[in-house]
């Protein structure tokens, strides 16, 4: 299924959000909503997006936004989707949640909603820590990254939420990155064309959290993909296709140090940890290549 | 139509007739029969609802919230730990002004694992902004459920309603049930703040202190307004279907010198105790509290009061007794009885009245002399 990316001019993220400079959560959401269009409701658990939308009685988002408690987004979306479908409405129900609300506190509700075949799109924008509360570790924080609760660097690996999502046999799932908006736009359109649950996991570089300068969010996303720390792919009914950018990286990744060095969160990272990260990248590449070849 | 049913089946029967568009629920003893029966009605096509078999009670309430905000009718049922697991979302439902109706089958809280009747589960939800009604018969469970939808969805209320029935003592007891031809008793739902994609709005956004304070006051104002709506609804119910209800069910209270106050089936049992006491020449009466939120004004002037709590607030006292002491200057004897499903007979209740020690608290089966 080919979708030509004609990105609409309509804006659903209006000016004057309360996002930090260089925020790729709001950058991603801008393209998500352009792809989804006006017949859309966002369900947002506690996360940076709760803040970015602005303070009551104002909102900077031009679609209805239902804010809900931290662990409840997918369950809330379940009810909403069922209610809309019962009323014969095709309104897109999109959860837009951070890594904390997805990989940690919201994972049960998300798994339940997937298992029940809920007709909705779950998007996790992943800045690899609890950004809203000042960068505490989440299970999405990569090995070796410093956060306010892992001051010496995280000693555990990043949770593989994509494998967990894949285990639910979703009609459609994808990874994306704020640095590749056209790819993201296409994937959101595609996801919404499927009936049933779909999942998109977006890497969202975060200047204050990752400690790099604010103009470098797009660059940081590209370095993540080029180094293999992030892999762009999609699965349609279980069939895996790796994105062109990641295929390039699989053939010849840039040195991981190029990605780690500009980020304050990896400052002073132990060479052994860097080696483990490199091994994990190679292992992940091999696993995905084998899956693609077999599917 | 007359039939014989359990309390749980009566709840399910009312749900079938009120026909919520979405039901999201998770099973828990002793509520299970409610969700099984509703699922059966959905499966057979007798009830045209979407039944979302969620993976937890937290998700049950979250799903009801997500469904309700689209402007449709919703229902869930739970008990005990299920209700406590929902607690974050019960607050959300009330704060979001959603007329969700829930049946709660009262059960004690662990540890230990005890599945029998106690009111502490619902009373821990006392301050959430939900309206709470406690029933004492199978018929009343059915009637209160039907009225709950009408009250919750009334535009002067727009708050969730919890219908409480005692685990096993009522949920699993068979009694006669007279079902009604509902007609238009529950008008179609109209939620003024329902999501409209043509008029996008933010719900539950970041809110400053001044606005948040106003939202809190709006909940209180609506709970106060609900008094009139409850009275009107009960009056209309009596007019159409012949069964009268009020904030309390008073029995032999007119000349009573001592009044027994209790919730649920204990309050019904107290009526038999009143008959016993009257035969002995003790001018007793029973005032069974039906509504806990909004809290009714009780006519206790000039009487002694025996409050029986099937619940407790550790470090303070029986929850109902504490609330009644806050409302009246009349002397109160506080009895703690029936926790964890402890059996309390009308003979026991008569004993509480005969041997009342005004101003004291008595734990039935633990303290002696009553």
Strand order of the largest sheet of chain B: 3-2-4-5-7-6-13
Q: What is the number of domains of chain B? A: 2
The named CATH superfamily of chain A = Thiamin diphosphate (ThDP)-binding fold, Pyr/PP domains
| Spatial extent as radius of gyration of chain A | 18 Å
Q: Number of helix segments of chain A?
A: 12
Distance between the termini of chain B: 44 Å
* Helicity range of chain B: 25-40%
Architecture per CATH nomenclature, i.e. the level-2 architecture of chain A = 3-Layer(aba) Sandwich
CATH architecture label name of the largest domain in chain B: 3-Layer(aba) Sandwich
The CATH class of chain A is Alpha Beta
Helix/strand class of chain B: alpha/beta
Order of helices and strands of chain B: EHEHEHEHEHEHEEEHEEHEEEHEHE
The H-level CATH homologous superfamily of the largest domain in chain B, spelled out, is: Thiamin diphosphate (ThDP)-binding fold, Pyr/PP domains
- Runs of chain A in which pLDDT lies below 50 for 5 or more consecutive residues are none
Q: Can you give a write-up of this model?
A:
The complex is a heterodimer of chains A (295) and B (370). Chain A is built from twelve helices and eight strands. Chain A has helices at 24-36, 48-52, 73-86, 99-104, 107-115, 161-166, 181-193, 207-210, 217-227, 244-251, 256-260, 271-294; strands spanning 40-44, 65-67, 92-97, 121-126, 172-177, 198-203, 233-236, 239-242. In chain A, strands 2-1-3-4-6-5-7-8 form an eight-stranded mixed sheet, sandwiched between helices. In chain A, strand 1 (40-44), helix 2 (48-52) and strand 2 (65-67) form a beta-alpha-beta unit. Chain A is globular and about 55 Å long. In chain A, 54% of the residues are buried. The model of chain A has no long low-confidence stretch (mean pLDDT 96). With 370 residues, chain B is of the alpha/beta class. Chain B has two domains: 2-241, Thiamin diphosphate (ThDP)-binding fold, Pyr/PP domains (Rossmann fold, 3-Layer(aba) Sandwich); 248-363, Rossmann fold, CATH 3.40.50. Chain B has ten helices and 16 strands. In chain B, the strands form three sheets. Chain B has a seven-stranded mixed sheet with strand order 3-2-4-5-7-6-13, sandwiched between helices. In chain B, strands 10-12-11-14-15-16 form a six-stranded mixed sheet, with helices on both faces. In chain B, helix 4 links the parallel strand 4 (74-78) and strand 5. In chain B, helix 6 (138-153) crosses helix 7 (209-241). Chain B is globular. Chains A and B meet through strand 1, strand 2, helix 3 and helix 5 of A and strand 3, helix 3, helix 4 and strand 9 of B. Strand 2 of chain A pairs parallel with strand 9 (202-203) of chain B.
């Amino acid at each position: 299924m080919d979708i030509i990316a004609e990105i609409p001019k309509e804006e659903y993220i209006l000016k004057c959000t309360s996002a930090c400079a260089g925020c790729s959560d709001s950058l991603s959401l801008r393209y998500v909503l352009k792809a989804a269009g006006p017949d859309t409701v966002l369900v947002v658990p506690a996360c940076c997006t709760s803040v970015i939308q602005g303070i009551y009685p104002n909102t900077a988002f031009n679609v209805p936004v239902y804010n809900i408690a931290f662990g409840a987004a997918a369950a809330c979306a379940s009810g909403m989707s069922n209610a809309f479908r019962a009323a014969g409405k095709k309104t897109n129900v999109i959860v837009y949640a951070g890594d904390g609300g997805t990989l940690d506190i919201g994972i049960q509700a998300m798994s339940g909603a997937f298992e029940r075949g809920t007709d909705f799109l779950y998007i996790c924008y992943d800045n690899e820590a609890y950004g809203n509360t000042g960068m505490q570790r989440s299970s999405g924080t990569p090995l070796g990254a410093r956060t306010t609760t892992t001051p010496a660097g995280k000693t555990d690996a990043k949770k593989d939420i994509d494998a967990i999502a894949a285990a639910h046999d979703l009609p459609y799932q994808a990874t994306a990155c704020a640095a590749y908006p056209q790819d993201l736009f296409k994937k959101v359109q595609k996801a919404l064309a499927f009936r049933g649950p779909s999942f998109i996991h977006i890497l969202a570089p975060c200047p204050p959290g990752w400690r790099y300068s604010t103009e470098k969010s797009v660059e940081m996303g590209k370095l993540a993909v080029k180094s293999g720390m992030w892999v762009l792919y999609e699965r349609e009914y279980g069939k895996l296709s790796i994105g062109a950018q990641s295929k390039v990286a699989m053939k010849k990744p840039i040195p991981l140090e190029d990605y780690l060095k500009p980020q304050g969160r990896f400052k002073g990272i132990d060479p052994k940890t860097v080696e483990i990260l490199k091994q994990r990248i190679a292992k992940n590449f091999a696993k995905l290549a084998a899956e693609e070849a077999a599917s | 139509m007359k039939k014989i049913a359990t309390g749980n089946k009566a709840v399910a029967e009312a749900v079938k007739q009120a026909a919520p568009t979405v039901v999201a629920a998770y099973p828990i003893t002793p509520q299970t029969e409610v969700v099984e029966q509703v699922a059966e009605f959905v499966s057979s096509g007798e009830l045209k609802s979407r039944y979302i078999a969620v993976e937890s009670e937290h998700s049950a309430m979250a799903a009801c919230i997500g469904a309700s905000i689209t402007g449709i009718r919703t229902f869930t049922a739970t008990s005990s730990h299920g209700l406590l697991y929902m607690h974050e979302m019960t607050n959300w439902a009330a704060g979001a002004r959603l007329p969700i109706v829930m049946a709660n089958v009262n059960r004690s809280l662990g540890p230990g694992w005890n599945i029998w009747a106690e009111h502490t589960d619902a009373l821990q939800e006392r301050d959430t902004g939900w309206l709470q009604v406690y029933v004492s018969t199978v018929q009343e469970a059915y009637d209160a459920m039907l009225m709950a939808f009408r009250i919750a969805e009334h535009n002067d209320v727009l708050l969730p309603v919890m219908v409480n029935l005692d685990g096993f003592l009522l949920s699993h007891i068979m009694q006669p049930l007279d079902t009604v031809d509902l007609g238009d008793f529950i008008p179609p739902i109209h939620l003024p703040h329902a999501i409209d994609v043509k008029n996008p709005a933010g719900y539950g956004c970041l809110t400053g202190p001044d606005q948040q304070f106003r939202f809190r006051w709006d909940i209180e104002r609506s709970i106060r307004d609900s008094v009139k709506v409850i009275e009107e609804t009960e009056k209309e119910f009596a007019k159409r279907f012949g069964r009268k209800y009020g904030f309390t069910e008073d029995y032999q209270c007119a000349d009573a010198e001592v009044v027994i106050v209790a919730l649920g089936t204990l309050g019904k049992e107290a009526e038999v105790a009143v008959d016993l006491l009257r035969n002995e020449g003790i001018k007793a009466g029973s005032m069974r509290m039906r509504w806990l939120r909004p809290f009714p004004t009780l006519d206790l002037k000039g009487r002694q009061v025996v409050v029986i709590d099937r619940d407790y607030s550790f470090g303070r006292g029986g929850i109902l007794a504490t609330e009644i002491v806050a409302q009246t200057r009349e002397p109160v004897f506080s009895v703690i009885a029936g926790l964890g499903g402890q059996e309390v007979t009308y003979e026991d209740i008569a004993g509480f009245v005969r041997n009342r020690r005004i101003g004291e608290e008595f734990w039935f089966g633990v303290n002696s002399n009553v």
